[in-house]
Amino acid sequence: MTVSALRGQLFSLENSLGRLAIPLQNEMLEQLFNRCNRLRLRCASVVLRLDAADVAGALPPIPVALVTHVADVAGQVATIAARFDAAGADAALKAADGALKRVEKLLPA
Q: Which of 14, 39, 47, 79 is the most exposed place for a label (fewest CB within 10 A)?
């Protein structure tokens, strides 16, 4: 898979997290809202680090399973944003955190 495919899925995840933040704020779920925003910022940071590693030629091959996993998590977050429930939001945020950790392991320190 290409870097652009992973980048695109990370942007999708960031967008989905942004859409999830709105009902979290409306329901006054401050802790979940703060977690969601931290994940959005972390996602943006991962994209920048991914691009920097790509330019430096320091990226290993990107597994298709990783791109698929990030896409699945972005879909899960988007679904919860559309049909909001607090328990689902918590699970979606945990999944987003896990997906970002997997991508961060791929990046050079």
A: 79
